[in-house]
Amino acid sequence: MRSWHLDRRTFLLGSGISMSLPYMEAMGNQTAAAELPARMCAMYFPFGVGMPKEGSDLHKWRWFPNGEGKNFTFNESLKPLESVRESVTIIGGMSHPNGRRMGGHDTGDTFLTGALFDKKLLHNTVSVDQVAAAAVGSQTRYSSITMSTDGGVGEPTRSSTLSYDIKGRPIPAMNQPLMIFNRLFGLADEDLKRQQRRLRSASSMLDLVMEDSNSLRRRLGRRDQEKLDEYFSSVRQIEQRVRRTQRWLDIPLPLLTDEERSLLKLESDSEAPKEYMRTMYDLMWLAFKSDSTRVATYQIASMADASSVAGPFPFREGFKANLHTLAHGWNKPEGAVALGKWDKFMTEQLAYFLQRLKSTQEGDGTLLDRTMVLHGCSNSITHNNNNYPLIFAGGNKLGLEHNHYVKVGSDVPMSNLFVTMLDKMGVEAPMFADSTGELTPIHA
Q1: In whole angstroms, what separates CA 127 from the centre of its chain?
Q2: Deepest of 212, 338, 386, 414, by most Cβ within 10 A of its Cβ?
Q3: Cα dist. 303→149, 270, 348 in Å?
Q4: What is the sign of the dihedral through the CA atoms of 212, 218, 224 and 227?
Q5: Going by CATH, does the domain composed of 36-184+257-442 fall within 3.40.720?
Q6: How far apart (Å, rounded) are the C-alpha atoms in residues 4 and 174?
Q7: For the CA atoms of the chain, what is the radius of gyration?
């Protein structure tokens, strides 16, 4: 390393605080490339896409491209991706085998888990983002960021979050841009002091509880001991989270430039879908850029069509139907065009996010080069749980190859893609859910 090259882990020390440096050119491309992090995010939308018959007059509004492999062309719905084509792969034919056995609108909960939901079993399993977060989350202030338009967790089969913990429990999603911003960047001094006091108090209480547990345990029978052990397993998880958070209390939150702040429309809400979605994407971009987290999920709308905040999004963008009704028109001439134009609108927002990542230099590449982006749905057309429309982008510097349309057979579960994503994150997970290996066609 040259004498003027800086280590990425260099800290500024002063006034009792330490702050890690962002990537700077003086750190040198070679050193930075070895230390720069891998990231992943996943976005979901419900009810499927436009699928007019191939060769029909409406074919240009078919979501999937024409051709195959490197020799493919985008139809109208995906044309906004042309500018980032070198970093994009379209995947066709893939789905979760368990999803094919479920109701047509019951699969949003399992998009990132691959679990089976039926009338007798409404229990989920861990989502792929949380497997990654458990492995790499200790290196950032937040192990992951969970966002959605509806917020919270929703209800089984109509979940409003994509993320599930190791026991299959839903992780509440944040849906207010200002709330997300304040969590990432905006704590005032007094709020920070209050948080410090609260965490230190919580840590003290947990220490006392754990001290008393041993004497109590000796007085209990075997079954009660097992119950107590299960209870304290949860307490230990909380304790670990508290201690992890305490490590970051004395490290200042990232500072944004005036230009970055001016990009954000924190007052945006669901009344203006385009501005709202772009603001959520901007927040994800800034979270990655500042290395506040390396894992994120964003559910753009849920399967709860009657109550979902995103249901009226098409109306507010000039369409004549809500989200669910729009999706049901896929096989009617007028409806197919309308759905195709909505698909294009959604692709434009994704392309905006990918361009944000691509325009941000980092070491020997861009933020997109080390960020894997999964965008898709668990229906092909509404009520059909086969052939998920999937866009997989980024990660060119992580050993992924793009600029092709990959078609797979029904024997290739979507979990194979998850195994590949975890591998590129540096997570040792040779299997996930019902995987049979990695998705080799996207390897460089």
Answers
A1: 10
A2: 414
A3: 12, 17, 22
A4: positive
A5: yes
A6: 42
A7: 23
Domain ranges of the chain: 36-184+257-442, 187-252
Write the Ramachandran bin of 22: left for phi over 0, alpha for psi from -120 to 50, otherwise beta: beta
Residues 6+ apart with CB under 8 A from 269: 176, 177, 276
Is pTM beyond 0.85? Reply is no
The encoded tokens of residue 407 equal 């078609």
Q: What secondary structure does DSSP assign to 238-295, as a single string?
A: HHHHHHHHHTTTTSPPPPPPHHHHHH--TT--TTSHHHHHHHHHHHHHHHHHTTS-SE
CB 5 within 8 A of CB 97: no
Q: Name the residue among 60, 79, 83, 72 with its Cα closest to residue 404.
A: 72
| pLDDT tens, residue by residue, 77-91 | 999 999 999 999 999
Tell the residue number behind the tokens 């003027």, with chain if given: 4
Of residues 366, 351, 5, 311, the one with CA closest to residue 160: 311
Show Cβ contacts of residue 316 under 8 Å, excluding neighbours closer than 6 positions.
271, 272, 273
pLDDT digits (tens, 9 = 90+) for 238-259: 555 555 555 555 566 666 777 7
